[in-house]
Amino acid sequence: MVKIKNEELMMKNIPDVKLGIVAVSRDCFPVDLSKKRRVRVVEECRKQKIPVEEIEIIVENEKNVLEALEEIAKRDINALVIYLGNFGPEGPITMLAQRFQGPVMFAAAAEETGNNLIEDRGDAYCGLLNASYNVGLRRLRPYFPECPVGSASEIAGKILDFSPVARILIGLKRLKIFTFGPRPQDFLACNAPIKPLYDLGVEVMENSELDLYDIFLKAKNDPAVKTIAEDMAQELGAGNSYPDLLEKLACYEVALMKFMEDNLGASRYGIFANKCWPAFESYFGFVPCFVNSRLASQGIPVSCEVDIYGALSEYMAVCATKLPATLLDINNTVPDDMYEKAKTRVKDYKPTDLFMGFHCGNTAGSYMVRPEMKYQLIMKRMMEPEGEPDITRGTLEGRIRAGDVTIFRLQSTADTVLRSYVAEGEVLDIDPRSFGSIGVIAVKEMGRFYRHVLIEKQFPHHTAVAFEHAGKSLFAAVKMLGVEDISFNRPGGMPYPTENPFA
What we know:
Elements: H1 7-11, E1 19-24, H2 31-47, E2 53-54, H3 62-74, E3 79-84, H4 90-99, E4 104-109, H5 124-137, E5 149-150, H6 152-173, E6 175-180, H7 195-199, E7 203-207, H8 209-218, H9 224-236, H10 246-263, E8 269-274, H11 279-284, H12 289-297, E9 302-303, H13 308-321, E10 325-332, H14 336-341, E11 354-359, E12 368-375, H15 377-383, E13 393-400, E14 403-412, E15 418-427, E16 437-442, H16 446-455, E17 462-466, H17 471-480, E18 485-487
């Protein structure tokens, strides 16, 4: 894998998760049982190199809740594990979860040995049921692992799973989406009702294309432009097909970054959803794809065609993986002759499991095979049908490298209901023999998923792509956000509700 450029800068646009663990104890059970079990969990976390802060206060009553919150605040903890070392007090437990201003995980201790089930029996298996009922009373949405009761080693593993989920939720609460321009004509599918974004805690700042052009013009004399242009040339290397274009592109990058810095306000993290055609090229003199790919490398997604929920979905993928993400069209089928020729590389995937993910040239160069700056072929046909390309130059093109991926989207319907899907798959080592940032993607049962999720639930053609399997974290985070409709690619033999049983 090519080393990701500006990795340290990328990490600045996603939260650092600082986990804390607090043990709770019911007053009719030995408090020492909860304490020693918490200590064992922390020891296991250290063995597994999972950073976690140990809260000394054991919560038995409401007064302890206040003491624990004070200790948590002093330690700057932003994600909390509430651990039932024994049965636990259901009221104080859920009060702590309610008053803590961040994501919360619940877990409980399994019994350790059959040799002492009198003095050392904790009954946390039972206590977690009571806690869950109180969670409902307080309308909380904490994280419960799929198997929330376990040994110290198992709980440590569940804490590790919780960390990316917490990162997603913390990131959304401090996120601002900057938009420039309305969607292009016939892109109504990328509709973006604003209210659900505010419900999620996400801020939105909408701007016009004139605002974008204005900040671009004002950045021309910024001394950073030359430095960025040199960095672009170094990144492109042999793929630097249009060296004369780099200063314009660098000016655009400087303008976007300065705008974000000046306008984050009360938010901490920023992403973009920008108009990129058709008028853009006539005024700016290039297509912005390479700049979008560079910002993606830094953990700052810039979605095409003012796809606000596409940018949001990309950012969630970045938080889940701590890696760049991209936005691709679920674009075209794989021809039969290409499938037959690549039989040794398609493994056990059926032809209908495959599709090509494509976009003009916005994918981070570190996830492409021999990326090269080119021109946007479709735009050239429309804008510069004769002669050499000029204003349609600026894409970063190449085959997306083989490896695990997750396709994901969180989207609002027109009537402001949030829906989501997540499916894991892989980019295959097959030459797509086409243009753009493009790859042959395999997802098990993609044909049925396409029909009964993407079409049936009216999702747009853009999908966020994470460059590893991140379905577990994304699914859990979306569920904690209160989204009730979360789809996935159902295996054969597990029909969708809308699937015709006689087909």
